Every structure is written in C-alpha cells, then in structure tokens.
Amino acid sequence: MSQPKIFITRLIPGPGLNLIKEHFPSPKIWTHDLPPTREQLLERVRGVDGLLCLLTERIDAELMDAIGSQVKVISSMSVGVDHIDLGEATKRGIPIGHTPGVLTDATADQTFALLLAAARRMVEGVDYVRAGKWTTWHPQLLLGADMVGATLGIVGFGRIGQAVAKRAQGFDMRVIYHDPTAESAYNAQPVDLDTLLRESDFVSLHVPFTAETRQMVNDQFLSSMKRTAILVNTSRGGVVDQTALHRALKSKQIFAAALDVTDPEPLPMDSPLLELENCIIVPHLGSASKRTRDQMSLLAARNLIAGLKGERLPHCANPEVYK
Ligand code: DGY
Q1: What is the pLDDT of residues 96-134, one digit of tens each?
Q2: N or C: which end of the chain has fewer CB within 10 A?
Q3: What mean pLDDT is predicted for residues 232-256?
Q4: Are 283 and 262 in contact (CB under 8 A)?
C-alpha cells in the first residue's frame, strides 16, 4: 500500500510527531513559527489524505474543496473546533478529530492564575517595581480583592468550568454557575444568568464559541456585574464585545478583566485594551504546559492515524459523520 499523504501545519510536540512517524514515516510539516498564509495552506493541503491542523487554521468549505474528496481525516490539536465548519465536514463525510480532556486542568489552572493576578493586581505590582516606584511599604498600596468568601460565577459548566469550581473550593469561595445543560458538581449552585451577574465577585467564562455565545459579554452583561467584579476569559475571544469591555473597564463599571483569549488573535498593538491598567492580557496560554501540549499532540496524532487507517477516531468532534 502506498503511504498516505499527510500535512501537519506546525511543528507539534515530539510525542505526537514521533507517533505519526512510527506509522507514516514521511509527513509533510510546516516548520515555520508563523502559520502558513491562507494561500500557502490552500496550496499545501491539495491532495492530502490526512491534515493535522491547529486552531490558527480556518477549515471551511473552500479549504475542503482545495484538499479534495480523497481526504480521510482532519485532526485538530485543540479541544475547541470553532475554527472548523463541522457541518460542512459532516456533509462531506470527513471525520474531525479534537483533543478533549487533556487540557482541562491546565486551562482551569490558567483561569485561577488570571483570577488571582487580577484580584491581587499582580501585573501592576510587577510594573511598579520595574519602574522604580517602590519606595516604601504603604498601607494603601495596590489594594485588591479577597478570594475567601467571595462568589465565583461560572458561565458554562462543562469540563473546564467544573475544574475551576473544584479549585474554588480550596479558596473557600461560594460557587454559582449558569449552564442549563449541566448537572451541579463541587457544591456549585445553578442560577440564571441575571442572578449570576448580580451576585458574583468573579465571573469566569467557559462557554464554547458559537452563534449564541458570540459577543454575549456586551454592555448589558457588563452593566449587570458588580462594580467591584472581575471578568476572566479563558474560552474564546469572540465571546466578549471588546469595545464594550473597554468602556466598562475605563469607566470602572467593573474592577478588572483578565483575558487569555482575544478577538482577533494576536490582539493588534493599537487595541485600546492594552492601555488599561485594570486589564491583563496573555497570549492564549490556557493549555500551555509541557505535559498538556505533549498529551494534546498525542491525541491529535491518534485521531490522524485512526482516520488514515479507516478506523473510528478516538475523539471525534462530529460523531454524526459515522451515522
Ligand atoms: C483549545 O485547544 O481549544 C485551546 O483553546 C488551546 O489552548
């Protein structure tokens, strides 16, 4: 049997790459730090049997046309699949692989890191020291928010939302959540969104990015939050209306925000959000621990290999493709 043609859109971590090479020795790999441009991507995917992509690649009908009908699998090294037109893939019989589960803890840790950093004004503190402004211990210097006894409102109570609730128990926080589809866990109490926004000291977003959640954090959402509240987003940037968020932060409608994700990514350097002291932004690092990225690469590799062998993907984002 001739070797299947494979294109991998970036140099993924060793465990996944080595596994692919054990099965199929010569995959084509885009080894540059920056992703291929759209034109380069459309060119490179032509005629491949398997594509391993990241969340930086838009996988839509045009791209599926460019690949061709011989394609057996598209495997994304990500749990989120909002960059992929799943309906179109299903229509064409293409199974889509993704990497659920393995990044839950890393993303929940990152959520807590951001929550604490915003609450205790960590970045302002670092900037203060680096700017040579630290002259004495001052009883009113950079006062932030307490965790113990505070209410954490989790919007979207799937795997990651629940892992955040678990961590909050260790901080003696009261946890409430809004997710009509989820059962309670870790003593979290289900509430409607208005109650969550009215009562939360911290609001953490864990919803998938869909037509329903696009810009759900808008003027109305933000004005329903406490003036002392902190917003944390480790889901997708498009869930937040960034213009509304800028207004809310600048006018102190809310106390602070900490964003792991923005829209677009990277955030342009002229974004007014970058001028605000009460807004922490990091470059989409939710799953960025060594072990987690190794595991993501392994899951993505397993999905790719299974698809190329005509087997059911271990983690398929569009299981209806098998019906
Ligand atoms: C994912 O896999 O969807 C995450 O956003 C990566 O950190």
Answers
A1: 999 999 999 999 999 999 999 999 999 999 999 999 999
A2: N
A3: 98
A4: no
Q: Which atom of ligand 1 is nearest to the CA of 235?
A: 5
- 286 CB near ligand 1 (under 6 Å): yes
Dihedral angle computed from the Cα positions of residues 259, 230, 219 and 279, in that order, rounded to the nearest 10 degrees? -40
Query: Of all protein residues, whose CA lies closest to atom 4 belonging to ligand 1?
Result: 78
32: annotated active-site residue: no
Ligand 1 pocket test, pick from 10, 54, 55, 111 with the greatest ligand atom count within 8 Å of Cβ, gives 55
Is 98 a known active-site residue? no
Contacts 24+ apart (CB under 8 A), 63-66: 64/88, 64/89, 64/92, 64/94, 66/42
Distance 110 CA to ligand 1 centre (A): 12
CA nearest ligand 1 atom 2, residue:
78
Angle CA(228)–CA(231)–CA(232) in degrees, nearest 5?
145
Delineate the domains of the chain, giving CATH numbers in brackets: 6-102+290-322 (3.40.50.720), 104-281 (3.40.50.720)
Atom from ligand 1 closest to the CA of residue 287: 7
Residues 28/304, Cβ–Cβ less than 8 Å = no
